[in-house]
Design brief:
The protein has 415 residues and is α+β, with helices and mostly antiparallel strands. The protein is 28% helix and 25% strand. The strands form three sheets. Strands 1, 2, 9, 10, 11, 12, 18 and 19 form an eight-stranded mixed beta sheet that branches. Strands 6-7-5-14-15-16-13-17 form an eight-stranded mixed beta sheet.
Length: 415
């Protein structure tokens, strides 16, 4: 057998040449129909839907680093739709539906795994809030229900039902909760977009926005100047910075958000388990690693460094939920930058500049919105600024009219 493999590997018939998933970076043209600033999941998804469903292929994605290297590469890959408001539930439910069929659409495995999410309630007030969330989710087609401690013990036998002397009274069980490979999602969208003519320009940083009156008409980059008809801003934690360069302010504050992962062990935890009272959530990856995450850092900062303080806090709370984890070794720790709004909902749609469209304010929930965000932003651009109904509640001017979409407390861990 080894000799046969060696003969095949050294033979003429070995397929040394294969078509690359992504083409080489082309020369930057002077004009595009659409420029998308940001080569993360949202940026490449928008380009993909523009090309595939609207026939707009003269599109340039400008990424200052590398494909999916920002928050797309730094999240914990959770997908869910169990939010608080009708607007939020409708929006994220559509995203879950798109995630379910992405591998088939791309012909590219994103390793989607529907495992469910369990959020623990430790107080009567939390139980009441969970009951309301379950009703809202059910009304809009989500599979979410309130379950008792006995059912929780059946779902997660290894869970300590009295962590930190805070007995678990109930749980919000979200059957639609899932995970997917974040890098595979970005590569799948990028592959589909570039195959249809979209250009991906990595190591291309936007340093200025070119304006004529109240309209955006192009960008200046470290590789030259580009003119265009429309611009989409999708730069996650740096949204307020880029908006400032464009000449307007966004009601955002950016915080580091840290996570960590242990050495791999045999599978024992299928659902994602979270507790907002403990500011911690735990999930096991397909490789067997245990991922810990929680609340963002308590101070604004544009930095992705890790800290010992948060590491100690997260580990202590994770061990409260799963005491035997105290014997496990930590493998690595990392951080992303979250752009938070005051109502914990995104900013999508129009900006003060004509033909300059916003995809910002995602905080800790950007990955799970990737497909529906790409689809609706593409529709917005293709229809020359006509805002899709699904994202109309997330308009920037809601802060002027006091029509916030309050999702505070709907995250897997309190912020």
């Amino acid at each position: 057998m080894p000799f046969g493999l060696l003969k095949y590997g050294l033979g003429k018939d070995y397929p040394f040449e294969r078509e690359p998933d992504l083409p080489a970076t082309p020369t930057l043209k002077q004009h595009y129909d659409v420029v998308i600033i940001g080569g993360g999941g949202h940026g490449v998804a928008t380009a993909y839907y523009l090309a595939k469903y609207h026939g707009i292929t003269n599109v340039a994605i400008l990424e200052k680093a590398y494909l999916g290297g920002g928050n797309t590469a730094r999240n914990t890959a959770v997908i869910r739709s169990n939010y608080l408001t009708p607007q939020g539930v409708r929006f994220y439910s559509e995203s879950v539906k798109l995630f379910e069929r992405l591998s088939n659409e791309f012909d590219f495995n994103i390793m989607y795994s529907q495992r469910g999410q369990l959020t623990l309630a430790h107080t009567d007030a939390t139980v009441r809030a969970f009951r309301q969330r379950a009703e809202v989710n059910t009304h809009f087609g989500g599979r979410t229900e309130l379950i008792d401690p006995h059912h929780i013990a059946e779902l997660v036998p290894t869970l300590n039902l009295n962590p930190a002397n805070m007995p678990v009274l109930a749980g919000l069980w979200h059957k639609d909760g899932a995970t997917a490979r974040h890098d595979a999602v970005a590569w799948g969208y990028a592959k589909g977009a570039t195959q249809r003519g979209v250009e991906l320009h990595q190591l291309t940083e936007v340093i200025d926005i070119i304006k004529e009156g109240d309209r955006a008409v192009g960008v200046k980059t470290n590789r030259g100047t580009v003119h265009c008809r429309s611009i989409v801003q999708a730069v996650a934690g740096y949204s307020a910075v880029l908006a400032g360069i464009a000449g307007f302010k966004l009601p955002l504050v950016s915080y580091p958000l840290q996570a960590m992962v242990t050495q791999p062990v045999k599978p024992f935890l299928d659902p994602l388990v979270s507790s907002s009272a403990l500011h911690c959530y735990v999930q096991q990856t397909s490789r067997g690693e245990l991922v810990f995450g929680g609340g963002s850092d308590p101070y604004p900062l544009y930095n992705t460094r890790s800290t010992l303080e948060l590491k100690e806090s997260l580990i202590a709370h994770a061990v409260e939920m799963f005491p035997f984890m105290s014997e496990m070794q930590l493998l690595r720790q990392w951080a992303g930058i979250t752009d938070m709004t005051s109502d914990y909902s995104p900013i999508m749609g129009l900006s003060p500049l004509r033909h300059y469209y916003l995809d910002a304010g995602w905080g800790t929930w950007g990955f799970k919105a990737t497909p529906i965000c790409g689809q609706t932003m593409a529709e917005l651009v293709a229809n020359d600024g006509k805002v899709p109904d699904l994202i109309a509640p997330f308009a920037l001017d809601r802060f002027d009219h006091f029509k916030q979409v309050n999702e505070m407390g709907a995250t897997a861990a309190s912020h």
